[in-house]
Design brief:
Arc Repressor Mutant, subunit A; D-Maltodextrin-Binding Protein, domain 2; five-stranded mixed sheet; about 20% strand; globular; LysR_subst-bd; WH_DNA-bd_sf
């Protein structure tokens, strides 16, 4: 099976539509449709269920999709290794990360890595934990950095760094006088929280259910910077790991009060890759560098 056919098939699976996949691939929809039908003839089985709104893979299609993703990732790894053998020392690393570790952790790791390996380029996508895991699983990211991710059969956590949640507020805020706070204690004040696809929000919602608490946020956002700004402005309290607000704490802009709730103390930063995948040299090198760098930045 040609790599071109694998790329075409993989794009149709990702897009869920032959027309949209054709647009992404810059080919005619009719040509792409013929390619997909040729694949089905080759296998003797339908690979898609075709509907008015798009296509959905059959069981055979899902099986072939896993093979296609693995083959395309292997091609990328082999090209990287050939480049290295040629002495080009090139490569590209795709990272998908939650926002909270970017400013005070990930960008430092990228900068120090690039000083040593200037031929390696890096792309960084920022999103929530659920989308980080999906990107790694689907082969859209080589490395994922998530917050308190759930176990996944096809995801391998290469590092799990404990990074508990704290109540973040300005030093003059009434609750800042306490040495420790429970989540219940903080809910009498205005609070800011991330939206539901964030790992932080999952932890908060889980604790609210077990403790029978009601969370009525003053601010709900998909921006970690907005949460930091909410706390810095004295508007109320937010919930973040120390690594996320390290610079603000060192500058005296906010304080971090420990939370007593056990669930919130178990928060982690998780570095993830696709289980069973042999990583390209550049990716493996950056992963090792990240393992060495992240723990020193807390």
């Amino acid at each position: 099976m040609s790599l071109t056919a694998l790329r075409y098939f993989n794009e149709v699976i990702r897009a869920g539509s032959i027309r949209e996949a054709a647009d992404r691939l810059h080919i005619a929809p009719s040509a792409l449709s013929r390619q997909m039908r040729n694949l089905e003839v080759t296998f003797g089985l339908p690979l898609f269920e075709r509907h008015a709104r798009g296509v959905v893979p059959t069981s055979a299609g899902e099986l072939y999709a896993r093979y296609a993703r693995a083959a395309l990732l292997d091609e990328e790894r082999i090209n990287s290794e050939i480049d290295d053998l040629k002495g080009l020392r090139r490569g590209h690393v795709r990272i998908c990360s939650v926002e909270g570790v970017v400013a005070n952790g990930l960008t430092h790791a990228i900068a120090t890595f690039r000083k040593r390996f200037q031929g390696v380029s890096i792309s960084l996508e920022i999103t929530g934990t659920e989308s980080v895991i999906t990107a790694v699983r689907d082969g859209d990211a080589d490395i994922g950095v998530a917050f308190t991710s759930s176990p996944e059969a096809d995801i391998h956590r290469t590092m799990r760094l404990k990074d508990p949640l704290f109540a973040i507020m300005i030093a003059g805020y009434p609750a800042a006088r306490q040495r420790r706070l429970s989540l219940s204690d903080t809910l009498q004040y205005p609070v800011a929280v991330p939206r539901k696809h964030f790992g932080i929000r999952t932890l908060l919602d889980t604790r609210c259910r077990t403790a029978q608490l009601t969370l009525n946020p003053t601010l709900e956002t998909n921006s970690i910077e907005a949460l930091r700004g909410f706390a810095r402005s004295g508007c109320g309290i937010t919930y973040l790991p120390r690594l996320t607000v390290k610079r603000e704490i060192e500058a005296g802009q906010v304080v971090a009060v420990p939370l007593t709730d056990r669930e919130l103390q178990q928060a982690t930063v998780d570095v993830c890759v696709l289980k069973g995948r042999t990583l390209p040299m550049a990716t493996a090198g950056f992963l090792n560098h990240l393992h060495a760098t992240l723990p020193t930045l807390r």
